[in-house]
Amino acid sequence: MNYKRVGKIVNYLDHIKVAVLVVDEDTVKVGDTIRIGEEGGMEIKVSSMQIDHLPVDEVKAGQDCGLKVEEDVKKGSSVYKVTE
Questions:
Q1: How do residues 53-84 score in pLDDT, each as one tens digit?
Q2: Where residue 50 sits, what CATH number does that domain have?
Q3: Rounded to 5 degrees, what angle do the CA atoms 72, 76, 82 make?
């Protein structure tokens, strides 16, 4: 597996398990697998994203989105796209 940094977590809403991701490189699409955090971080398949409470299929560099996660994440964690 290869990992390409795409952004970072700037906020985490623990009561609804939503992380706010700012994409600063590349794109993130629904269906992509991402890793949040360094080694030992959580890997998830992106099932849904929202910008301003509206669902989107893709987030580009310079945009931020809400991302549903299953586990707690830390603010400031780097986010990587998983590639083969």
A1: 999 999 999 999 999 998 999 999 999 999 87
A2: 2.40.30.10
A3: 75
